[in-house]
Amino acid sequence: MSLPPEWDDDERMNFLFSDFKENRDVNTTDWDSKMDFWTALIVKSCRDRGSVCVNLRELSRTFRRKERAPLGLGTVLQSMSRCGRIQRESEFAANVDCGWLSWGVGLLLVKPLKWTFSTLLGSSRVSVEESFVVIELVKEKAAELLRVYRSSEFSSCAIVSFQELCGLSSDVCADESTLCMVLLQLQRDKQVTVSLHEGEKIVKFCQPGQDRVSPVSDVDVGIYQLQRSETLLGERLDKLNQEADRSKEEARTLLQEGKKPQALRCLRGRKRVEKRADSLLAQLESIRGILDRIAQSQTDKMVVQAYQAGVAALRLSLKDVTVERAESLVDQIQELCDTQDEVNQTISGGVTAADEDMDELEEELKSLLDESKTPDYVSDLPAVPDNDLRPPGEPTVASLPAVHQKNLSISEEQLEEELSHLTLTESGFARSKATSPNRRLEPAQ
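The structure assignment produced for this chain is given below.
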């Protein structure tokens, strides 16, 4: 067992090895500190040793330091018992079905619970030989044993002999006493039940799919006997096959030595052994066939129970459901679907109209922007008429003679004459304008 670091601190250990004060209220901190230290160390020591039980004598020997033993271990055990962390072995066994006491190993004499509680609460001292069960450790062992069983070759067998279980739990329980405590805990958890059959202890485990183990029935005992017979016949058959092989080898050896009569006797003995082996093999096959049928019947029973549960659940789920109600619900659903389609169409049409209105608003907004760019004084001017503003009789551009496009060859004398003509025309136009400024000007001809 690994000891805590403060084990080498003399000052600290002198305090921890001292006895507890009679009144906890004198120094609550020191009292609780010492109690927590020893409680944790006791549980740790039991876990390291693989044990689920403790007594005062073993603890005093385990925690001895420099020829000294702790003085307050009895107080620690009493406190742990009051808190429910440990239980007297006799009380632990008495809380289980009394039928278990007939096969219990290592259990103390169980006295009435009234005496047990009175001694637990009224006595100020703990007997050095009285054994206590550490509850958290026995629960851990119980869970581990259950896991080992379900992962072993015996998981298909509801009933296992106590001797087979001892071999199976060798890595979990250090001895038979520990195994008994673990089985008692499993019994309290309704996971196993133990009984005696023809003087042999048998253990029945809770099977997968069950909340608690069922009592051992005649069917369980019959299956167990068939399984035991199968095991015994298999062992005998192996022995007969080994004996036949030895007889064959012996006959071969005698024949090599020239002892033919002795070799013949060995061969005759081998034939008899093989006949017995064939008979045992036929019996073994019969037993295996029965076990297979039993397993199949149990599977069929489980399937039938599942069917029954399914029918009951289906009947309960369809309790208020009828064909007329289902048809009515379907019609209502169809009506609601049609209504939803109409609503979707209406919503879609509204969205299109809104889009068109948005386009009109965009056009109007654009026109407003164009108007805002035009100066105010321009907007005050009168509109430009689009009709013909020419005076009556005024020739239009279309009525004017066409411009000659051909190349004209004019001499210098002709150009001077035309220039003088134009000069005279402009002078006459100017005099006419000065004489009557209000008269409409006529172009010179």
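Interim note for the steering committee: Residues 260-317 form the longest helix (58 residues). The chain has a mean pLDDT of 77.
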